[in-house]
Amino acid sequence: MAILGKRVLLFLSLLLIGNSAFAQNNSSLGFWGNGALNMHNHDLMINTTKFNGNTNYLNGAFGFHYNYKINDMFVLSGRAGLNFLGANLDSGTSQVDLSMMNLELTPAVQVYNLIPVNNLYLLGGLEIGLPIGNTYAFNSAATNDLSTKLRVGLALGVGYDYQLNNNWSISPEVSFRFGLNDVINYTSTAYSGTDGIDQIRFGVNITYHFKDEEVIKDNVIKDEGPADLKIGFGEVKYYDNAGKSYPLEKVKLEDFQYTEQFPLVPYVFFDENSEKPNTKTTILAQEPKTGEFTIKTLEPDAVLINNKTLDIIGSRLKESTNSELTITGTNDNKAEKKDKSLSLKRAEWAKDYLVKNYEINPDRINVKSIGLPEKASSSNVEDGIEENRRIEFSSSNPKILEPIIMQSENQRLASPNLIEFVPIAESKDSLAKWKLEIYQGSKLLREFEGTGNSKPLQWVIYPNELMNKQVPVDYTFTAETYRGVKKSANGTVPTEYYSISRKKSEELPDKSISKYSLMLFDFDKYEISEKDMAIINEYIIPAIKYNSSVQIFGYTDRIGEDKYNKKLATQRAEAVRDLLKSKIKTANIEVIGVGEGNFIFDNDLPTGRQLSRTVQVYVSTPKN
Asked: Which architecture, in CATH terms, is 509-624?
């Protein structure tokens, strides 16, 4: 033990001396502790007793580590400590206690950002173990020296960094240590044979991150200047309806007579193995209160409208007392296929919600269950699997699931109405959080927040969202690192407002605009459904006059290859064009296949992907 103590003290001295020479913002020092499952594969003969087979034994390991950050992806890690490899072997008639300990040295690499999860890292390294004072005891007799060899192992693992404060972090970590050689391979009069050891470790690393003295003073972290946190905007651009992007110079506001049709997705989506809806895609306006929801209060946004599908259906069922509804529960037929009752539980939950909150006679609502939906999304990608966890609605009355129509004699529309901000935040330190705020005057229009690296952010401008004044739009992007460095970048977009009176006084042309989103193409299909044909006949064809111009834009979700999706989107738009042409021979129609080049809805949400499988029809008619 005296020799062990000297070796440990020598190692710690070298580690501290080395760190004092290299300590800087990208270095850190800490300690770790692991529980370990030792998996012995042994074939030993001890005192003429055979010990053969596989034995698992719980033990532990602890030590110190030094990390050096090369860049945002790679961190070099030097680890040292004590690894206890002992076990109790049982032949059935005899036992032997192996007391085995190594002074372990592990050079390793931690790889970040390989998987899109902030602060998650993969670990790879080589474990080298120097044996220290190993012994064995046969049938609880006196201990005897045990000769073991240098252990060489491959270390593979995964961990997650959680920042406690500006200097300290804690990292849960799991690793597998694959032994590349036998630690016992010896022949003597007392014992002979081989023993190879693999390990599974689970534990935590506690790490102190060094900072420059000029940065830390009186417990306040100072801004190190542009070199530490660079912030700004790579681009601020807009998209036209064809999906092409251009630099944003101004926003034009104009008053129109405007009608927009929003499709109602007849599905509600669920988390994996859950009996209640996904809270990101379903907002329950009626729980626990009743009588407050009305369709007239819905915001003019397709995703927000479809977040309230259950309440829209409930209010329509309450008004149409003779209508019946069928709710079909489904599952993804992957992780959920073992629970055959889950689909039915989902459908029954929705029925119970409608009965309790809208006082619907339960005899009017039928429930049934299946596994995979009849018109399923792709089961080969996570997006499709997520969409297959749902309930589906059908009704004897098509009005229950008809689109939402919003119209006004005087709607204020923005052109362009889809703006994308591409913020930049670069730092040697990891970003803790960021925020984008959009104002017009003192009015906060929209706010986006997130953690980790920032991403492009799209702002869809609702009708009447901007004021009927020529007040510019101001935007501010703010980012903060884990060290507390915080900076902001600002920008301004001018607006130009054309009221109906201004257009008359300046003799500018005026027109009415109608926008229709067809509801909705099945996954990977472009054929027009009977329901969509009814929408075209009831709403679109009557809106097309002799002097109207019609633009048809085809879209897809993000599932699949871009080239294929572009073709599919064009086929969808062409199918609608051909149907309109068969009804109105002289119609002036333009077709644009956008594909996934421009996500008109959030494709991180299953509802957004469903809405993206659409064709949007714009009918513009000049006023006399």
From this structure: 2-Layer Sandwich (3.30)
